[in-house]
Amino acid sequence: MQAQADIDSEHQATNVIALYREMEWLQLVIDQVICSYLKQEGHEQHWLDIEPPDLLSGTPYAHIIIDWQLNIFERLALALAMAPSLKPNVLDTFFGLNSQIDRPFTEFGGVSDKAFSGFIPTGQTLNFLISGNDPQWRIYTRAILANQHRLMAEQVTQLLGVDEGVPKWAGIYRLNDEWLHYFMTGERLRPELSASFPAHVLESPLEWRDLVLEHEVMDQIEELHGWLKHGHTLMSEWQLANKVKPGYRAVFFGPPGTGKTLTAALLGKATGREVYRVDLSMVVSKYIGETEKNLSRVFEAASYKEWMLFFDEGDALFGKRSEGSSSNDRHANQLTGYLLQKIEDFPGTVIIATNLKTNMDEAFTRRFQSMVEFTIPGPSERLQLWKNAFNGVCELAPEVDLARIAEQYEVAGGQIINVLRQCALTAIVRNERIVYQNDIITSIRQEFRKENKMLF
């Protein structure tokens, strides 16, 4: 164990060395750009003549540069974004004053903060480095700072927002902490649930074999499973891409607890894909335009990966459009149209879950390859769910007749898990692991009360 710790420490030391070599290069570039801009001695040299350091093989930073095929401008942007966190004094040169007006150079961009005495770069700072001496190269800055650029889409770098009326590039340009962590340690952190990325990974401890659905439903799920396994081959080798748009879109509808969320999680697990559940409460904003921005961050990040996007209670965003004429109605309808376009253009898999199919806008449903109805499982499926639930958790008393329970009580899989939890709690309070028939019936009765149903 100690030997492995030593190896990990050596790797991390190499990772840090690679990053500090980038800082040394960035320092040379900054000095040369300012020298050329102010026509100081040596201004004839161009910053592109300064060779970046050789990438250290095997480091996470080198992997990203090579695998993503980042050009010299993108590599410079990455170095600038990480400088305040890694070696802030590299940027001190930007504090120089314009002798003609005795104030900082506006074109350098940047901001300062009471809690941080160093220079914090902005989008304008990046633009100055790239195009301060070559105005036509502004196009490279615009491409790097665009939301769809891979560095921005995958949340590696971020251009923070500014107040209304302030140029967009005046926003702070920064490297996200999870990526600095990756560059230094080699450990990938998943995007955290936040306003800038309103989605989180959907996981399940269960396996594909644990999925219990009625035959008709399972047939449709197997079709989606087949697409996830073979879709790439169909689109590329079979040239299906010439006939249809990329991606797959499905709607899961049915009562709560019937397996919609679990099925999405297990589809991802069975095909080696991460499933990201979009948090609608963080996406929807009262401010016009903000909802679209929040959704764009998710779609743009997912477009570079083989993520599946799962929208639970999807009718909150994908519901029927209003025929009203108020500004709110018009905005809601515009949002629906925007979502239609985003989903149609998304090259991955989107699953929208809703309790009622009738809540969905027909303009959406026509564009989906699959509409899967999750029903309350039948007696045979319920029996299997009961057996799976108690297996390895509790001991069933000889009197327990799961077949009779499955036949008599129409409950969904989610409700069965709730019953299991309550029965296990009841048993452990008795200081035993045995569950009796009455324990199960009592717990079923509690589940029925939630829906104002009576158990006779």
Automatic annotation (TrEMBL):
Domain of life of the organism encoding this protein: Bacteria
InterPro entries, sorted: 26S_Proteasome_ATPase (IPR050221), AAA+_ATPase (IPR003593), ATPase_AAA_core (IPR003959), P-loop_NTPase (IPR027417)
GO molecular function, one term: ATP binding
Keywords for this protein: ATP-binding, Nucleotide-binding
Phylogenetic classification of the source organism: Bacteria, Pseudomonadati, Pseudomonadota, Gammaproteobacteria, Vibrionales
CDD domains, alphabetized: RecA-like_protease
Annotated source species: Vibrio eleionomae
Sequence similarity: Belongs to the AAA ATPase family.
Residue ranges constituting the AAA+ ATPase domain according to the UniProt record: 246-378
Keyword Protease: no
Protein name per UniProt: AAA family ATPase
